[in-house]
Amino acid sequence: MTAGAATPGAASGGGRDGLLRLDGVCRHFGRLQAVQDVSFGMREGELRAVIGPNGAGKTTFFNLITGFVPPTAGDIWFGGENIRDESVVRRVRRGIVRTFQITEIFPDLSVYENTRVAVETAAGLNGRAWLTSARRREVAERVDELLVTVALADKAHRLVGELAHGDQRVVEIALALAMNPRLLLLDEPTAGMGDRETEHMVELVRRLHAERGLSILFIEHDMGIVFGIAQRIMVLDQGRFLAEGTPDEISANEKVRAAYLGEAA
Amino acid sequence: MNASMTGSDAAVAGERSRAASPTAAPRRNLRAAGAVVFWLALVTLPLWLTHVGGYTALGTKILVYGIAALALNLLLGFTGGLSFGHAAWFGLGAYGAGMTLKYLAPSTPLAILVGTVVGGIAATVLGPLVMRRRGIYFAMITIAIGQLFYFIAVRWNNVTGGEDGLAGFERAPIHIGPWVYDVQNETKYYYLVLVCFAVAVVIMKLLLASPLGHTWVAIRENRRRLQFLGVRIDLYIWAAFAISGTLTALAGTLNAMLFNFTSPQDLHWILSGNFVIMCVLGGMRKFWGPLIGVAIFVVAQDYLSSVTDNWMTAIGMLFVLIVLLFPKGLLGMLGRRGKEAA
Amino acid sequence: MQLLLFNAFNGLIQGVFYALMALGLALILSLNSVINMAHGGFLVIGAYLAYTLAPYLGFWGALVAGPLGAAVIGLIVERFLVRPLYKRPDPLYTLLLTFGLALIIEDMTRTIWGAQGLPFQIPDILNSSVSSVLFFITGYRVLVVGITLLVVLGLWLMLRYTRLGIRIRAGTLDLETVSSLGVNIYLLRALNFALGCLLAGLAGVLAAGILGLTPPMGSSLIMPSFVAIIVGGVGSLVGAVFGGLIIGVAAGITTTYFPAASDAVIYLIMLVVLVLRPRGLFGQEGLFE
């Protein structure tokens, strides 16, 4: 039940039908093996979760995909191309966009202004000192559209720094969506949220996947959410690949249970 | 743009976001009224300033320093680059204009052009040396770079006049076809400066409303996040540095012609520090903050130097008090936009 | 040739003052995160205090008392003016505060001691030349170099082997961790600030013996000290010392051939360093960006 078996042809062109593939990826920090020989494949339009006990290497796994840390061994394929040596910026341009565990926003700007920066960046307009009115309207419409999508239109003119934590995380998602992601990575999207905020976020993620067909990979601690919305789940444990499969397969998996029970005990 | 929504949805969104702040329309009217009053006051300034104890040249000086401080604030308040060396561009503009009038041709527009271009090129060329630094290091390098030009001006005696400054030039009447605008008249020079001020303000307002301006503010707010989005922030800091320097040089040219004199003091780090405190005093998060800071600072300096020999101490105290008591500046204390919108 | 040696040696002496200033600035910059624009002011305080106390304490007593006075005033300034600003992360505010202090100190010096230059009496024995050929090497200049060497060595030993020194060094790397280990970082930063001011005061007294005293002597020495730090590498104390000596000697040598450029050459060296090696000669990578 390894990912390698599920997606053949890794060596030759890296799984042409897959969106993302990792082949035997390792990363160590000094003597600490954060991620060890992990292989993984994901198709376009999937909604996947990555789970694992604390210290399983989930964040490093994300950092490897997004380019924040380079792998010490192994290859990373995206859309059929090897991107293992590419920078964060190159990968963002390819459509690998992430949100952060700790909120990373522009606090003294409004929700609208936050989103507009991302929209203008996605359109490559950062250096423009002048926009035609048609172009400006396009930007404004895109911002409005994104704010409707994430249901923040009624808070468009609030300063982000003054919003509730849950709304700040939603702004994060708006920023990520503005970059036209082909693969959206969410790092614990509901961390630190209350029940209502969590519900809102889960609904948003589900909708982005269902209505837009967006490929989403997320790390999450709340098993209720993971098993509620993910189509497939990958489990990491102490930096190693442990299991991969549908929610049903994972919940029946002995090794996964042992890993989690082991942690609880 | 992968719009998966219809246009009408977007329209609804716009509608809703506007509806969220019901006070928006009256506020807009208030702003427009404020702008009209502001510009009217500036246009009529030579008529009333003398009646409230000022003199026209003081008004001109406030506008000149206003251009410099507003320009500095593009970098300082909007991009978050702590430049402590803006006197360099101011002084280069001043010497450029003065030397053009003295050695090249008695043409006021040419002097403005040459001075602005010289200062602008210097800022553009030296920008890459600082654009990657942050905070404290950015400040240190800008301080030190600024002093280079100071020493050139002091030591290159036979051309710059050395410590004594550059004198022996005069702003020349402007000929437009058969019509002559004699800027040697103080009031007429005021209006020339006011036109330059208005042009500079329009340029800065347009820039801040453009994607470039949005990028600057985002750099100030969270440069890391912007880098994650794939923005090469150093290029945009460079742009801010160059534009800010160029407009500051414009102010320098006008300053040289206001006094028909310039000296190494116009290049000195003390002037750089004064520009920064003007921005802070008025409020560097607001577009007009620096202008208010300039008005207070210039008037205070003018007054203090006439009543006490220890005006330097008084100015120094002003620095200390502003830092300890009014770090957000006068406009910053009047409340923030976000709280009103809530 | 002798002229070149003469100027190079003059430059070295000048460089010693830059180095002492830069060392204090660098200490305060790295642990207190303050660009101390008033550093020249502390130099002036040290010099004028020594001048005032010399009739009572003698030259040697004044040589000790001047710097100590600067340190005490530094301690007071740190406690009441700088400390409240540590919680503001923007370095802008301490920069402006110390800038204001620089103006106040210079102006007050002028009011108290007058704008005229004053001579600082040094013992006659130090005024005589050590060598008859190299007439410019007087006993006093040897003393200046000697004291500076001793101070730099002492500082190095202190930072290396004493508890205070080790804490200061650790604090420049990671203040939060040092704080979490139970070290009183307020006290640490206060002492460090005072130490920086002590070095400035020492530079002031030593410089007074050669250049005499004038109120703006501080502001004319502070800018080259910034350059010394940038050339040597921000964050490196060794760099600050060598940066100061290098630009001092370079300015001295330039005086021989092209006197008018002796100030500008310092800044040209800085520009070259910034272009070719942005982190400075001794700077650590990454610290700068």
In brief:
The complex is a heterotrimer of chains A (265), B (342) and C (289). Helices cover 74% and strands 2% of the residues of chain B.
Textual characterization of the structure:
The complex is a heterotrimer of chains A (265), B (342) and C (289). Chain A is an alpha/beta fold. Chain A is 40% helix and 23% strand. In chain A, the strands form two sheets. Chain A has a six-stranded mixed β-sheet with strand order 6-7-8-3-9-10, sandwiched between helices. In chain A, strands 2-1-4-5 form a four-stranded antiparallel β-sheet. In chain A, helix 4 (111-122) packs across helix 5 and helix 4 runs parallel beside helix 6 (165-178). Chain A is globular. Chain B has one domain (54-341): ABC transporter involved in vitamin B12 uptake, BtuC. Chain B has helices at residues 7-19, 24-43, 45-48, 56-79, 87-104, 108-130, 135-155, 157-160, 186-209, 211-228, 233-259, 269-282, 289-307, 311-325, 329-333, 337-341, and strands at residues 174-176, 179-181. A two-stranded antiparallel ribbon of chain B has the order 1-2. In chain B, helix 10 runs antiparallel to helix 11. Chain C is built from eleven helices and no strands. In chain C, helix 9 runs parallel beside helix 11. By secondary structure, chain C is an all-alpha fold. The termini of chain C are far apart. The longest helix of chain C is centred in the first third of the chain and has 44 residues, at 39-82. Chain C has helices spanning 2-32, 39-82, 92-113, 124-127, 139-161, 163-173, 175-180, 185-211, 217-232, 237-257, 264-276. Chains in contact: A-B, B-C. The interface between A and B is large, with 51 and 47 residues.
